[in-house]
Every structure is written in structure tokens, then in C-alpha cells.
Design goal:
Layout lengths: L8 H4 L1 E2 L40 H5 L10 E4 L6 H9 L4 E6 L2 H12 L1 H15 L4 H16 L6 H14 L28 H10 L3 E5 L13 E5 L22 H17 L2 E7 L10 H5 L4 E9 L9 E9 L5
Parallel strand pairs: 2-3, 2-5, 3-4, 5-6
Antiparallel strand pairs: 1-4, 6-8, 7-8
Helix pairs in contact: 4-7, 4-8, 5-7, 6-7
Length: 332
């Protein structure tokens, strides 16, 4: 989801060593099949800043699955609200998800492959945390946060269980790191947080079985994209004010130059013949003359939709704002 790191690319871009279950479709109309049972619907297992749960009804109206789409790719998966909506409702031949947040991708992989172990560790954390009083909880939380930041001594399963624990107990469910790569969000004020949602974790694991999970730069996904692909881009949002620079999901930030690099990549995706949908902030919320995205994506369809902004230390700064949905396949 974020700026490419400079480490060895062989280590940085890790592809899950699993194969898809081959699906036999009679014709292209049967490539996508609507599922019926809502009892089998998985939800995102993490709260995630900028998560698309509140916009899913609007975003889902853009799905191009009535066309000859056999593949879905999400280069900045984050909390996966769109991913799980698609997994709950459609069957595709191939699905790829990616993010450059290594801890996040480790969590997806562990839940996919080792959900029983993740659940066991989470139940232990829940059992230890919930009986404590507020001061004891703060101390326990800080200890677990320190452990999470000392990743060299953690197994991937321990790292994943701590990530979920911190996400369910920290302030506003934020994931934020400093330039030292340290998670630095304080504890939230939750009376009885559900740290281990076993039923949902098992559903998530089931849904991920035929999903290929990668960690790396979104540009490395280009070779996977063809003219039967739908790509949903949800990159770190461009700050809409000088002080609203919450892009620190990794130690790096996503600058205007990187937004322009992404636009160039999207032009290539368009030239291949793939369908894409892009979400981003609308600079016009605070500056009517700011045409950054209008100019950057002038040749595509740009729609402004209403969303609720929840992440701000000032309550008066929260509320309804406009966000952008940009596509190459839907005309207004």
C-alpha cells in the first residue's frame, strides 16, 4: 500500500506458495456466480484507517463483473473491505492481493494457513487482558506493544496475534508506525473488546484459500494484469489539509510524486485493457481550486461521493466529506 522499500527485492516481494483451485465454467456468463448464504460472509479482521466498509454499497455498484472479467487484483489491500465483499458475493478464476506493509501481509498469510494457531494465541491474550483494571490494562498493552515492535524475537504467528490484539485494543483501531518502524498508537478506552472473533477468523481463512497473497511494490503486479482483469486501487490518501497527513501505515509516506507515479501505472493498466477503480481523497473539500486529481485523471470518469471522516483528534473535524472514485469503464 505504500512506498517501496529499498531492501533486496527477492526478500521484499514474497509470493504465497500455493495454487488456485481450477474452476470449470461453461461460458463467460458463468465466470462470476452470485452466492446466496449471508451466514457465510466474512468481514475484515482488522479495523483499518481509510477502510471502505462505509462506502461498500457505492463501490460495489462499480464492479464490472457483468463483463468478461476473470481476475481480481488489489495492490493496496489494507483491511480488505472490498476484497471480502467480492469473496462473499462472487467466484473468480484468480484473485491476488498485495500490500507493502509486511506485518499486515504476514497476518493475512497466517490466518489463511494457520488460523487454529492464531485463534489459540488470541484467546490467551483475551483471557489475560479482559480481567485487568484500567491501569493494569495500560501496563499490559504497553508490554505487548513493546513485544510487537521487537519483531526479531517473534514468530510470524506471535506477530500476527499481537497485531490483532493491538488493533482491537488501541485508540480508534489505528495502525500507525514512526520512522523507526515502531507501532506507536496508545491504548483505547474499550470496556470489553472482542479480541478473538473465532467465527469470523475461520470464515476469513476459508475465503482466503484460493487467494494469492504478496508483499511488495504494486508495480510488480503489472505482469499479472490482462484485459480480463479488474484492479481496485486504494492507495494512501493524499492529505486534504496541511495538517491531515495521516499516511504513516509504514515508516514511509506517499507523496504527490508517488501519486503521479501511480497515475502513470494506472495509464499502463488502462492501455492493457484492464478495468480499474481508484479511491482517493478529494482536495476540493478544503480548496475548491485544488485540481490535483482532476488534472491527473482527466481522461477518466471521476465521481465525488460522500463519506464519513472518523480519524481526527478534533471532533469538530470529523464528519461528512467527499471522496473520489475514478474509473475507466463507467460514464456518468
Amino acid at each position: 500500500m505504500f512506498e517501496n522499500r529499498k531492501e533486496d527485492k527477492q526478500d521484499f516481494f514474497q509470493v504465497e506458495n500455493s495454487m488456485f483451485v481450477s474452476l470449470d465454467f461453461e461460458n463467460t456468463q458463468n465466470i462470476i456466480n452470485k452466492k446466496n448464504s449471508e451466514n457465510n460472509f466474512a468481514k475484515p479482521f482488522l479495523k483499518w484507517a481509510g477502510g471502505k466498509g462505509q462506502l461498500i454499497n457505492i463501490i460495489s455498484s462499480y464492479y464490472p463483473f457483468s463483463q468478461k472479467i476473470t481476475k481480481y487484483i488489489e495492490p493496496f489491500v489494507g483491511g480488505g473491505a472490498v476484497l471480502f465483499d467480492i469473496l462473499n458475493n462472487f467466484v473468480l478464476e484468480e484473485i491476488y492481493i498485495n500490500d507493502c506493509n509486511q506485518e499486515l501481509i504476514t497476518a493475512y498469510t497466517c490466518i489463511k494457513n494457520n488460523v487454529d494457531d492464531v485463534i489459540t494465541l488470541l484467546y490467551q491474550l483475551q483471557k489475560e487482558f479482559l480481567p485487568l483494571n484500567t491501569e493494569e490494562r495500560k501496563k499490559y498493552y504497553q508490554q505487548k506493544r513493546e513485544q510487537f515492535n521487537n519483531k526479531k524475537i517473534l514468530s510470524k504467528l506471535e506477530q500476527t496475534s499481537l497485531l490483532l490484539f493491538l488493533n482491537k485494543t488501541c485508540f480508534n483501531g489505528l495502525y500507525r508506525v514512526n520512522r523507526k518502524k515502531e507501532f506507536n498508537v496508545p491504548m483505547g478506552a474499550y470496556k470489553n473488546p472482542l479480541i478473538c472473533n473465532e467465527q469470523n477468523l475461520r470464515l476469513v481463512s476459508e475465503k482466503l484459500q484460493n487467494v494469492i497473497i504478496t508483499c511488495g511494490d504494486y508495480k510488480d503486479l503489472l505482469t499479472l494484469i490482462d484485459n480480463k482483469t479488474f484492479v481496485y486501487f486504494d492507495p494512501p490518501y493524499r492529505p486534504i489539509t496541511q495538517t491531515a497527513s495521516f499516511t504513516s501505515y509504514t515508516e514511509n509516506e506517499f507523496s504527490d510524486n508517488q501519486q503521479k507515479e501511480l497515475a502513470n501505472f494506472i495509464d499502463t493498466v488502462n492501455d492493457i485493457g484492464a478495468k480499474f477503480l481508484l479511491s482517493n481523497s478529494d482536495p476540493k473539500n478544503y480548496d475548491e481550486n485544488d485540481n490535483f486529481f482532476d488534472e491527473l485523471y482527466a481522461k477518466y470518469c471521476i465521481k465525488r461521493v460522500e463519506a464519513t471522516r472518523m480519524i481526527n483528534c478534533k471532533s469538530e473535524a470529523r464528519g461528512k466529506i467527499k471522496e473520489l472514485l475514478i474509473t475507466n469503464f463507467r460514464e456518468e
